[in-house]
Amino acid sequence: GSFSESLNDKWNRSSPFNFFLTKAKGIDNKYNANQSVHIKEILSESFGELVQSAQFNYKIDVDWLVQCYPESFRSKPLLIVHGFKGREKQDLESEAAKYDHIGFCQARLDIAYGTHHSKMMLLKYTDGIRVVIHTANLVHGDWHQKTQGVWISPLFPILLGQGSGESDTKFRKDLIDYLTAYNHPKLRSWIEMIKTHDFSDCRVHLVASVPGRHTDISKDKWGHLKLRKLLKQVEPSCKQWPIVGQFSSIGSLGAKSEDWLCSEWLSSLSTMGQTLVEKSQLRLVFPSVDNVRLSLEGYPAGGSLPYSIHTAKKQTYLHSFLHVWKSDRNGRTQASPHIKTYMRMSPDGENLAWFACTSANLSKAAWGVLEKKGYQLMIRSYEIGVLFLPKSFSKEVFKIKDDNFLVPFDLPPTPYEKSDHPWIWDIPHVNKPDTHGMKWCPN
Ligand SMILES: O=C(O)c1c[nH]c2c(Br)cccc2c1=O
């Protein structure tokens, strides 16, 4: 309609998946309607009478975040959960000094190179709690001209009567376990609050990572082993379907594909338990240089795609798995991806055996790596995402068209041309100008 329709109507129409992409300035506005949201809509008064909120993220522009809340909500307690230390922590806290409603929770990062990647909003309203799990940093640029994923939960009401308050997907328990893992006093009140609310309507599973060397019963609570455990529920008929991984950064994966990518990691995502899977079974989507050059932002989009030459040089085998970013179906081929999604698709790209949207990029730090002959799963970072299993929606598979399932990019994905190269952020790109006539010369 002509009004910016309330998010409530949009949310109802997005049921039962409630999965959205962020609005992108500069694409045809018909693609910024139904299944698109902006942060100001999520925090708007029409979406709920806010009492307090918690924002879990990596990059946070405090002033920008405060003005994303409606004026009337800018005094409601806001807890910012981050992973910064030392100078960066000081800078963040001094940025917020002028706001007396903002508190901080510094997540422990005891293992080197770990980061607090998780992106989640906990929104406490007068009549319930809502959880938002997404992929966008709390900075203007992440919500401006990129492709990001956002899952918005139902409004979970206060638990009345004797119901368990838990859903078949055990989402509430998994969320409590995740928050408990921070072991931080400022999250205790949120944990207690979640325990008093009814999450029985929740249809997604939680797939999260917390830093640590996880063993015994904790080994498959996190990272790719949690995903492996959940995917055991997937229709066996999909066993031969390709796995698609799509992400905005790539870690150091080892000298050979058999070191981690096509053994440990792919085994979890393909639940075949087979250690080696033939190449066409795994399709990876990561922006090419031209994807970045021709994006709405131009080369600066590459500032959010931190794939370094140092890492890329060590793993040229990866480049034969790569596919371009193409999202004509959502009018977002030029909206550079910062979303991360993983899925198993039918060869024709018409159906999905499962679909996940998470903060986790393609890295051992995010998904974990088995150590000590598989005795422990070592994870460096905090990550959080949601998994959609057809079974939780009384289906065998997701029929993308018939079920109106929002898939962020075109399936099947399009392989790199011989002339395509993966975007690398710390080398010059000067052969051709970008959409703004500029070149990329990192220092
Ligand atoms: O958690 C995230 O989303 C991100 C983590 N690390 C980054 C670096 Br390092 C450089 C540029 C962008 C990002 C980023 O977006």
Walk me through what this model shows.
This protein has helices at 7-14, 39-42, 62-68, 86-95, 171-181, 185-195, 223-231, 261-270, 289-293, 309-314, 364-367, and strands at 19-22, 36-37, 50-56, 78-82, 102-106, 120-125, 128-134, 146-147, 149-152, 205-209, 212-214, 243-246, 282-285, 322-323, 336-337, 341-345, 351-358, 369-371, 376-379, 383-388, 398-399. It is of the alpha/beta class and 443 residues long. The strands form 4 sheets. The protein has an 8-stranded mixed beta sheet. Strands 10, 12, 13, 14, 16, 17, 20 and 21 form an 8-stranded mixed beta sheet that branches. Helix 5 runs antiparallel to helix 6 and helix 7 (223-231) runs parallel beside helix 8. The chain is globular. The protein starts with 6 loop residues before the first helix and ends in a 44-residue tail after the last strand. Bound molecules: 8-bromo-4-oxo-1,4-dihydroquinoline-3-carboxylic acid. 8-bromo-4-oxo-1,4-dihydroquinoline-3-carboxylic acid binds at residues 58, 117, 137, 304, 306.
